[in-house]
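Lecture 7 notes: from sequence to structure.
We start with the chain below.
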Amino acid sequence: MINMVAPNQSKIKKFLKSDKVTYKGLEKENLRSDKEGKISNKTFPDEFGVHNYNRYITLDYSEPHLEIVTPPFSSNLDALNFLHDLHAHVEENLDGDVLWNYSMPPKFKSKYIKLPPHRETNKTKLAHLYRLGLRNRYGDKMQSTAGIHFNFSFSESVLAELDCTKTNLYLGTCRNFLRLFPIVLRLMGCSPIAHKSFLKGRNINIEALNEEDCYLPKSTSLRVSRLGYYSEEQDEKFITFNTLDDYLDTIKSYINQPNEKFKDISLDLKQQVNNGTIQMESELYNHIRPKGIISKDIRAYNQLKKGGIEYLEIRSIDLNPYSDIGISIEDIEFLELVSMYCALSDSPEINNTESVYIKENIRRASESGQNCNFIMSLDGEEGEISAQAQSEIFLNNLKDFADQINSSNGKEKMFAEFESRNKDPLSSRFIADASKAGGVLPLILEKSQQSNKKVDASNLSIFIKEKELSEKEYKREINEDEISFEEYLDAFRGEIK
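Predicted structure tokens for the same chain:
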């Protein structure tokens, strides 16, 4: 529960003996839109090479669903600047389109949601089949939301001083992040409105904001809610991160045990990778995800099983439309400090009762987080507390924590920003601004104007080189594939048993 997350003074003392370095990486998705606010029907630009092999500029679900990725940085500002250069470089090559700076899609037309071509290697054919499976399972709309992934890890110096395994440290961080995620969602969620085209044909209880837009008046994030990026099949089992073995067992059972809802989607005709609850590890919709050592030749499950957890990926962060690239330096500073707070706090295992509290608090935060109560316990007089009051308590605790780890210097603007968001959430401000602007489309088109940033010459050279490397890697794999795709797929399906 939220009130169970309290810094451990012994851990803090050990941390202070280290170099205190953390590494942060950013992954940012944007839908590609034309200048009228409709999803673009254009393909991945040739200027970025082969998306499956480009480490920095790639595609998520579909051709208009772009994703840009930074390497890890110890400096928050360096991470932001690299992301900003990536963003600007992409903008310059979109043939008149813009990067839609909002987590819910622009004006939706399914015919424009084209899956990337399968190309000629086994790897690219598997990626195409996986996307086809997502389409056949959930439809294009759910897959067409966008957000930020925040990757976090500690330096070897910190890990050595804390004197515990990386896996146990990061599992505890995951548990505490789930406890605090309702507060994070209240302070960072900003997708309370969806264009009516996104909801067409769905039986959903939602209100009309105007002739074009629908919303939940007190929502922070439709994207995180049951109306957005959500799998009912996965929601039946709450992942607690109590042990790595339990987490891996869940993944294994989700992949191998046929799911009644997906069993009729053909495997023989290659309409999905498999008929389990998830086709592969990346289909698991966690708010935070443990990650192993990155290796293109080893599946994510086996990376974790063989080497344990190397870093964490915080996933359910909405784009911030009040930043011209969807995330601000204050957002990054906040996520870094929250991650450290979670790691350096006690983290008891999550039992069945607490898992119910966490799920309900996340639901409340997403659907009515501007003005709701969070469940604290079923015991005592104060079973619930207002989300605003609990967020204020947490921000004060976070400020004290920053002082204790000598990290408060330069954070004044960040804390002022998040204290302001607690009183007037971004989502509340966004609804008011959308109403004034005449709807989501005109507001987000205004917020998605090209930044016209001059890309740093050294970064531009990295991006150009990566484009060339992606093309070389693709050609190399074509030449090195020695088995048919059918054999490759059979081996992939049998790898986790």
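Points to note: The domain at 2-493 is CATH 3.30.590.20 (Creatine Kinase; Chain A, domain 2). Residues 191 and 387 are 18 Å apart (CA to CA).
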